Amino acid sequence: MNFTEISCAEFVSLLGGAAPVPGGGGASALVGAVGTALGNMVGALTVGKKKYADVEGDMIRLREAAEKLQGEFLALVRRDAEVFEPLSRAYGMPKETEDQRREKDRVMEAALKEACSAPLEIMAKCGEAIRLQEEFAAKGSRLAVSDAGVGVIFCKAALSGASLNVYINTAAMKDRAAAGEYNRKADALLAEYGPLAERIFGDVKNCLKKD
Question: Are 157 and 51 in contact (CB under 8 A)?
Fold first, then answer.
């Protein structure tokens, strides 16, 4: 099933069910797409306005980058489901004999490593999206700056959510060296982009809030 071509109601219903996909990774990718689109809306409401003529070129550039990211996030909704399904099947493999246990361990280890690939990519895209939101918030129309704030906190939620999908897979790995490498990559992305997103959100909040 292509989870990006069904209705929002269907997606939410599937997400709340017992099926293994979509799950937290796909949901994080979708939230990243929504957050990126909110920033893109700020750009759309800025382009063509005389007041913001000096940043018109920046807004066009940012919108092109946001459009690309939106598509990549949606592709990652599908990708996350594709890499998780083999892992879901591996969990159900028999383990009654020594040969079966060895085979299950082999398949599981490969599936766990593959299952880390999509959430790590989601995290990297969230970092790109947060950087875009920083510019949308700083340069975009003040009438839409709240949307950049919502967008950046959505992207931070997607970043954090995807990280948990890395950590749950690495926790089950027998190859602890590989697990540590995946964890370090996730840790680095969280450390770089989590505080940045919070700062951007705080700047937007302070811009809007009047005591």
Answer: no
pLDDT at 92 over 60: yes
Which residues, 6 or more positions from 189, have their beta carbon under 8 angstroms from its beta carbon?
A: 120, 123, 124, 126, 127, 159, 163
CA-to-CA distance for 49 and 127, rounded, in angstroms?
28
Residue 22: cis peptide before it, omega within 30 degrees of 0: yes
Residue type (1 letter), 123:
M
Place of tokens 């007041």: 51
Please report whether residue 72 resides in a domain. yes
pLDDT at residue 211 is higher than 80: no
Q: What is the CATH number of the domain that holds 59?
A: 1.20.120.680
d(CA 186, CA 76): 17
Q: Could you read off the pLDDT of 3-20 as tens digits, one per residue?
A: 988 899 999 999 999 888
Domain that holds residue 40: 19-87+97-208
pTM score, whole prediction: 0.93
The answer to the question of residue 134 being in a domain is yes
